[in-house]
Amino acid sequence: MPEYLSGHVHLGDDLTSVVILDQTLLPSRAEYLTLRAPEEMAEAIRLLRVRGAPAIGICAGYCLAALAEQRKALPPDQFRVELHRLAQCLGSARPTAVNLSWALNRLGLLAHAMGAASPAQIAAALREEALSIHREDIAMCRAISEHGLTLLKDGDGVLTHCNAGPLATSQYGTALGPILLGHERGMNFRVFADETRPLLQGARLTAYELDQAGVDVTLICDNMASMVMKNGWVSACFVGCDRVAANGDTANKIGTSGVAILARHYGIPFYVLGPTSTIDLGCPTGDDIPIELRDPEEIRSKFYAQPMAPAGVKCYNPAFDVTDHSLISGIVTEKGICRPPYRQSLAALFQ
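The chain above was modelled as a monomer; its predicted structure follows.
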C-alpha cells in the first residue's frame, strides 16, 4: 500500500478488508478496526466509526472493492447480482451524505461498463477506482485549503461547527484545511470549536486535531457561539457539508444553520467548504435533502454516567439541518469559490 494512501481509512493488505480508525473512541483511545463482513462495514458507517462525507465516500469505495475481491471466484452472473446487493447494503447505512451513494455509484457504473470482463478483472478495476477516489480527495482537500486560505488573514478568529478536518476526509480536511495549511506556513489563527451536540464531534475530534497540530483552539458549548461572536472574536465561520443542493442550500451537522443565522446577525461571513462530489445538482433545494434521524439515546444517555432525561421522554434527534443559501457567503470547492447566485455558479463547476 503506498504510504500516502494509508491514513485513517485504507484497504487492508490482504485486499479483502478495510481498516479504519474508530472515531467513536477518540480522543481517549486510537484504535483501528478491520472490517470484512458487509454488515460490519455498514454498521461502521451507521455508528460513525468512520464519518465525514468525503471519508465515508472513500470508505464505501474500499468496502465495495474488498467485498468484490472476496467474491471474485463466483460465476459472473452471480457475482454481478451480489455486487449490486452489497452496494445497496452499504448505501443504506446513512441517507444524507451524498458521497456515500456517489462513490458506490461510481464503482457500480465502472463494473457495468466492463461488460463481459471476469469477476477477478472487475474486482481489480474496482480496487483501482477506490484508490483513485482516495487520491482525488487528497488533491481536492489541498486545493480547497488553498482557496479557503485566501479568505483569511493572519490573526483571524474562526468559528467552526462539527468536524471537517483530516479525520473527516483524507488530508488537511475541508473546513479545517485552510487553518492547518496556514498554520504550516507560519500564520496564526484563533479557532473556536463548537462542541457539537449530541455526539460532540467538535469536542472529541476538531479540538483534538487542532490541538495536535499546535493551532490555538478554544472549545465552546454550542450555545456559546453567540457570545463569542458578540465579543468580536470571530472573523469568519468555516463549516463542512454533507450535501449541497442545486440552489446552494447546504446540509451539515445539526446546529450549523443556527451558526449561520447568528453570523448573519453579527455581520460575520459564513463559508461552506467541500469537494464538488458533495454537490448534488439533481437535488433542487434543501427541502429535497433526506435528513437522517438517529437514536434518541444519543440525547438521553450517551456520554453520561447515568441518563440525564426521563427514560420515557420523547426525543427528536436529526443528525443534520439545512442552511439556507441566502445565509452562505461562499461555497469553497477544489475548483474555486462559488458566490451567489448559487444555481448558476454551482452548475458552472460541471460545465
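The chain is about 40% helix and 15% strand.
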